[in-house]
Each structure stands twice: as C-alpha cells, then as structure tokens.
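Page 47, continued from p. 46.
Same chain as before, 529 aa.
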Amino acid sequence: MIAHASIPQFSSASANNEDIMPFIELRGKSLIFIILITSGVDFLLFGYDQGLFGGILAGERFQQMLGQPNPTMSGLVTAIYDIGCALGAVGAFVYGEKIGRKRSIIWANVIVIVGATIQTASYNYWQMFASRIIAGVGVGLSTVAVPILQSETLPAHNRGALLVVQSALIIIGVAIASWLCFATLYANNSMQWRFPVACQVLFSLIVLVLCIWIPETPRWLAQHGQKDKARHVIACLLDKPDEDHEVEGQLSEILENIAAENTEEEPTWSEVFSNATRARNLQRVLLGMGPYMMNQWSGINSVCYYCAYILQEYLDYSQSMALILASVAFTQYAIFSWPPYFYIDRIGRRWTVIYSSAGCAICMAIIAGCLLKTTHSATAAAVAFIFLYLDCFTMGILPVSWSYSAEIQPLRVRNKSTAVGVFSHWMSNFVVVMVTPIGLDNIGGNYFWIWAIVCASFIPLTYFFGVETSGRTLEQVDQMFFDEPRILMGLNANHRRVLHQSASDEEQRFKQFGEKRASISQTEDVEKS
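Result:
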C-alpha cells in the first residue's frame, strides 16, 4: 500500500487560516515514519515526566529546595502534575476540535517548554508546584491530540502494531529518567535535580522541529470542509496520485460517515454524552474511557512513581541500590513493551487486555503476600514479581489504553470524547499517586491486594463490553454501532472478530469503494444532463 518516498516539497496543511502552518511534504513510508517518530518523542516526554520525580524526590538537594516536605506534601507536588494534565485534557475538549490535531501538538509542547523552564529555575516548593501544573497542561493536551493524529493517519491493517511504538517510547522515557536521575544522584549542587528537569525542554523542542513534516489529518480536514486538502493528504499517506481510485475510496468513505453524522454544527457537550444519536456517543465515550481507567487502576503508577521508594522504605535497600534496581526494572519494562508489535493485530485489543489483566492480578497478589513478611526470600520474590508485573502491564493494558479511545470514537465528537477519556486517565493518575504513600504507610503490603482485585475485574468487563477494533478502519468501527447496537457489545460475535487484512486487501477494498463512487457520480451526471 505504501511505496517509496518522493522528493520533499513545500505544501500547506493549515487548520483555519491558509498558509499559517506550512509543512515539508513527505510521502508514503517516509510520512508514516515521521508521524510515528513525532508521536513517539512526544510520548517519550510523557514517560520521562512519569519517571522524573520518582528519581529526584529523595535527593538531598531537591529536598532542601522544597523545604524538607512531609510525605503528604511530597505526594502533592508529585501528583499535582496530573491535575495539570487533566486541565490540558479539558482544554483539548474545548479547543482541540477547532485548532486541529497538529496545532494542538504544537501548542502543547510550547506550554511544556514554559513549564519545564520554570521548574528548572525553581527555588521553593510553591514555584515547583505551579510550574508542574503548567507543564502538565501541555502534556495533557498532547495526550489527546497524538493518539487521534495516529489513529486518523495510520493504515488500518497494522495500526495497532504501529501504535505499539508510541506506548513503548513512554516506557523508554521512564527508563531514561530513572537512569539519568541515578547518574546525577551524587552531584553536590542543585544540578542533582535541575539537569534531569531541564531535559524536558529538549524533547519538546525535537517534537516542534518534527512537526514541520506533519500534515493535518485527512478526517479533520474533511470534517471542516477542506476536501481537496484531505484528498491530497490521503494521497501523500498512500504515495498515490490525488486522482487514484484508492485515494478517492478512502475519502468517499470518510465523507459518507461525516454525512451520516450530520456535521454541519459544532457538537455540544450534551451530544457527547448522549446515546440518542446514531453513533451512540455516550456508550462509546464510556468504552473509550475504559482502557484509560484500566491503565491507572491497574496500580501501575503506585509502582512506577514509587518503585525506588518502595524498595528503599519497605524492602530495606539502600538509596543507591533502590535506584539501580528501579532503573533495571524500567529498562526491562521498556524492552517488554515491544512484543505487542507482533501480536496486537493478530489476537486483537480485547484478548491483549484480558491476558495482560490476568497476569497483573496474579503478580499484584503475590507482591502483597510477599510484603506481609520481609524475610530475605520474600523480599527477593517481591522484587521479582514487581519486575513481572511491569512486563505483564506493558505487554497488554498499556498499548491498548493509548490507542483504543481514539479508534472507538465517532469522528464528529472524536476530539471531545478522547479528551474525556484522557481527563479520566489523569484524574485517576492523580488519585493513585496521591494515595499510594498514605496507603503504604497505613496498611503496608496489603495495599497491593486492592490492585490485584481491580486488575481481575478488568477481565469480565473487557469480555462483555469491549468491541474489537483490530484490522478495521475507523469508519468500519462506526458501522458496528450503526448496524448492531447493544449494551453488551462483546456478546456479539461480529463485534469480537479480529479482521486480518493485508495492505493489498485494504488497497483493493478502497479501490472498489472509489470505483463505485465514481460510477455513481457518472450516473448522476448523465441523469442531470
């Protein structure tokens, strides 16, 4: 489907105003590659931020700058970042559809640079507190825009595998943060924490430079009446001429679904949360929120944010050994984030989450049991199953959570619905990060029994309610809700089925669609004449 890259050209993919945001035109594999790299670096920044405070929080210089805060205040300055991210998701809900996917990513990274710069220059607790919120707003905005950008540009037959790159880079970001914090641990000045914090700026600058090559998505352009631009972007993605039947087929399918949703006016808040639409918006908002909530309520950030803290405070490791073990754990975590590339489109999103949830539940139960008695063997087993838990999570729940919502939402409310899911993710993240030190302090290892039970509950929820999106275009996902709507979508065999399509199958399907549309247009022209 995707051929060789052609010579770059200057083109325009502006949102509301012509020629404000030109991009250097790439085609085919080169364009797909740059979309993946841009999205990946953006999510690497997201992962880096998740691992950052876990590495610097216990540092002597950082604690001095914060004024030696108590555990509650330490948890607050760590978790307040998630409130900023939630506010960024709200901003995406209100403005994201107006400014488009590409502009949302650009503005998001500008905001991150502002927040990270203030963090690096902080000299007291409250300055760090405020700047964490600012940086969080940027990350929250980008975590809405990036998954939508990818879902609306990547080919359907291997979209899941390509989206694994994004989730894998989140974990690579966590690992980089952990090792970098260990490298600066013994600095005798504020560089112990200022240098790792300042690195956030580098990642955002890379994203901003890469955005030069990113076009606006064809679905957003078509939604806003820019059909010719939408056609041209599809042609660039497929590396085909604008008048090719496959290009016309993709555009026609998008336009038909836009017409079916009656998109003349901006969707209202109430419409997003209404099931009285053909697309069943409320049901799909809830389905999209599911994996985001699973991501957080699996307990992952009780481990990611506090891995070194748990190893040091509850398993009696020294600070340096705790950081080394945490860094090794996150490195393994990053390595095991890649296997889903080979199976997520084969077994589907539903079974990927079900198997992952079962593994996470078992690991959390064993960790809880091991922490009841801190003997040498129990401690070793707890460390081993923390490692295994991270592997189980990254091989299933993680890659699905950051792709599914954008895939399941109808185009008309996709930006707003995805923003709702991201908002639920970040608010859940805030709660988990805030309560973990309190929970560990009050009930110790028994805290992990909670996550074992919650992870186990994901299995029936996914089986009964989940819709399979693997191998389907976003318009084919819409069709499932148009044709066979029900609450327990997972009980319908058609909704559980994984479509195994090759690039040639996808190409042939769109060519037939385009030829059919061309034939209908010719017939209509003859009748008019």
